[in-house]
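FORM 12-B: Structure-to-Sequence Request
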């Protein structure tokens, strides 16, 4: 048979045409001999291309799209990151306990009715974690900008309807709408960030998420101070939407994203069936866990709540490890496990700490904001510095950055045991700053070479981890209150502080467990040859 046999020859063993004057490397030559198109290689990138992803080097770039449109679209994505993520985070805090007496008097509720009210105001987080997986699929399959706008409109509707809620069912609907809208908007803005293909913008998103989880509760408590203090009282409806301003700013940013769209840069790889299956995988266990978490509010013992939280944490780590072996949900640096770490040690650590600091300052009725703002800034700086320092370095540097971030988290937890949470406000800087820097650095480093599917998969595990941490710390505090049986406010504060310190001990152990799980996930991803996307 002649070497010049056409490629359409049905004989599978017939040799193919090769241009002997063209220099080919071994993989490309083998691909041509096998009749397959060789996999295109990436062009070399310098640090500016990697960090800012210049539009003319994009794999889907439109030759008619100029750099001005790319810069405007990047600016819109940056503005959306800085506004949407905080607006989403403000759907988490439940400050109704500070005004529960006023709310009960306004709604004419007895003791059972007050428990139902607190159960209704706690629906924000379960609604949020249930909305993230289907919203992630929608943001990949449909226009991410349209999904973002739909989520923010739902969130804004819940915020604007808060003053009109005059019954427990309406309060439940308001909080559920806020949580669902936040859960729809967050994966959409992540997809917008991924469309920019910018390492620095991805790190900014990671740092903003960590910062919001750390600082959102003290800022909400500042808007809803405890009743019975010298602080000026606020209407009880304020607890349903303590900070509406970020939602309005996020809506403006979403509209700018619709207007400033760089069509040459917006195309991501199409959603595949395998990716869709991986993104909705956490939905069923998350729904079951949210249901059980809600059921624990019906006079469950603190031991029963701990069992539910332990089972949920085991399931989350198992999902993260299983997903790490998948080519779609896995990532070279185990971002799914790091997302669980960020959810477990962000909001569940600082939210009860803010409550303790507020209870120790009756003249203000709110925690001091400076330590928590410093922690948020540390998270942002940690994420951005990690991206800048590891942009041109190999995977080993990024893995070292993730380990360093976990080490800082352990340091923050240990320092939290060493300081008095109800003491001087400046003392809170010692645990909060390393905690924020560690979470920001670990999250940014783990996302460096992740694909959009693996980032969304990790995000779908983050907020179930938040709920797990909340259930852990609250059950430990309830257990300590049952042991102390407080008769005075000072004894009650002592019981809450003892339960929080016990939570920090548990958290220190869990950080080490999650660090080991991350190392195993990263090894599994390398063994499975998970691609760098």
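FORM 12-B RESPONSE
SEQUENCE OUT:
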């Amino acid at each position: 048979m002649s070497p010049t046999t056409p490629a359409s020859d049905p004989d599978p063993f017939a040799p193919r045409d090769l241009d002997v004057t063209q220099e080919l490397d071994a993989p490309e030559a083998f691909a041509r001999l096998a009749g397959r198109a060789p996999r295109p290689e990436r062009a070399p990138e310098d640090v500016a291309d990697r960090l800012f992803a210049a539009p003319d080097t994009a794999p889907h770039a439109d030759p008619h799209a100029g750099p001005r449109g790319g810069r405007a679209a990047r600016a819109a994505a940056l503005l959306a990151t800085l506004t949407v993520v905080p607006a989403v985070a403000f759907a988490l805090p439940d400050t109704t306990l500070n005004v529960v007496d006023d709310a009960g008097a306004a709604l004419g509720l007895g003791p059972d009715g007050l428990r139902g009210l607190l159960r209704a105001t706690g629906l924000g987080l379960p609604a949020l974690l249930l909305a993230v997986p289907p919203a992630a699929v929608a943001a990949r399959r449909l226009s991410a900008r349209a999904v973002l706008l739909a989520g923010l409109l739902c969130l804004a509707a819940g915020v604007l309807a808060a003053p009109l809620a005059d019954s427990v069912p309406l309060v439940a609907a308001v909080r559920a709408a806020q949580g669902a809208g936040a859960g729809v908007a967050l994966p959409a803005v992540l997809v917008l960030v991924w469309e920019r293909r910018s390492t620095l913008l991805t790190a900014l998103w990671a740092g903003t998420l960590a910062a919001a989880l750390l600082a959102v509760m003290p800022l909400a408590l500042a808007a809803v101070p405890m009743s019975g203090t010298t602080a000026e009282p606020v209407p009880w409806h304020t607890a349903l939407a303590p900070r509406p301003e970020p939602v309005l700013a996020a809506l403006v940013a979403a509209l700018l994203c619709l207007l400033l769209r760089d069509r040459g840069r917006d195309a991501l790889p199409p959603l595949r069936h395998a990716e869709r299956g991986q993104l909705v995988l956490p939905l069923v266990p998350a729904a079951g866990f949210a249901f059980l978490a809600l059921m624990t509010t019906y006079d469950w013992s603190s031991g029963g709540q701990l069992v539910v939280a332990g089972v949920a944490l085991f399931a989350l780590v198992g999902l993260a490890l299983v997903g790490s072996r998948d080519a779609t949900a896995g990532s070279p640096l185990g971002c799914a496990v790091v997302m669980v770490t960020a959810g477990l040690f962000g909001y569940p650590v600082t939210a009860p700490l803010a409550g303790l600091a507020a209870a120790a300052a009756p003249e203000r009725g709110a925690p001091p904001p400076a330590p928590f703002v410093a922690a948020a800034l540390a998270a942002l700086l940690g994420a951005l510095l990690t991206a800048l320092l590891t942009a041109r370095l190999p995977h080993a540097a990024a893995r070292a950055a993730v380990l360093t971030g976990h080490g800082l988290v352990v340091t923050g937890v240990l320092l939290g045991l060493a300081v008095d949470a109800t003491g001087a406000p400046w003392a809170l800087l010692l645990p909060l700053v390393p905690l924020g820097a560690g979470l920001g650095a670990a999250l940014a480093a783990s996302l460096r070479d992740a694909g959009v599917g693996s980032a969304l998969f990790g995000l779908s595990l983050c907020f179930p981890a938040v709920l797990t941490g909340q259930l852990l710390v609250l059950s430990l505090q309830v257990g300590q209150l049952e042991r102390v049986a407080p008769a005075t406010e000072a004894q009650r504060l002592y019981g809450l502080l003892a339960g929080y310190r016990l939570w920090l001990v548990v958290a220190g152990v869990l950080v080490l467990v999650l660090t080991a799980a991350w190392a195993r996930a990263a090894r599994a991803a390398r063994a499975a040859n998970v691609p760098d996307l």
